[in-house]
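Hi V.,

You were right to ask for the full record rather than a summary. Here it is.
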Amino acid sequence: MGNLLKVLTCTELDQGPNFFLDFENAQPTDCEREVWNQVNAVLQESESILSDLQAYKGAGQEIRDAIQNPNDIHLQEKAWNSVCPLVVRLKRFYEFSLRLEKALQSLLESLTAPHIENEVNNEMANRMSLFYAEATPMLKTLSNATTSFVSDNKTLPIENTTDCLSTMASVCKVMLETPEYRSRFTSEDTLMFCMRVMVGVIILYDHVHPVGAFCKTSKMDMKGCIKVLKEQPPDSVEGLLNALRYSKANV
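Predicted structure:
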């Protein structure tokens, strides 16, 4: 990991690092398969979660009508019937975040220290209220999972985790900024995948590293990563750029 990071961040190479990672056709090895299955199951479920989130409309009007008319049984029942299915959906979103948290911790363990075991505390009622109090609950779950992984494993050098994250960001940046590599991908979805991973690991790095991802001494090439994003169609990267702007842990 360290040697790969040195290659990715080296500025003395005439043509930059020369390598290609075939994200579209990569397959897990036997020793990776258990973690791969866990992460893949979460990623597969994420498609329906995202669709459900995009279709979520809430029941604000029904709730307001019921509050303003406490003696109107019809409005009380209407609000109740509107809210109950939404609570079920919110519970599903929260339970997905727990699976996402576990998957990330398993992935970090396999990348930085395969023999470490962690426990995750699931107190449903209290954690749901805290979960939805956050502006970006899913992102907060991931950053908390990464931070907890580091704090719970004090014998593991923090550089093992931060170098892993910065390497992943550098890999994605190189793939995106090199026309030869971009042309090998058969789907635009793969390019979006690279951009999302790059932004995601930058944010996680910023939450874990003592001085963050945006300082001059950071191993993250922030100028290069932002340049790559700004070279893409604005509609496709606006949300990613906003995530970088508003999810900083170190300001």
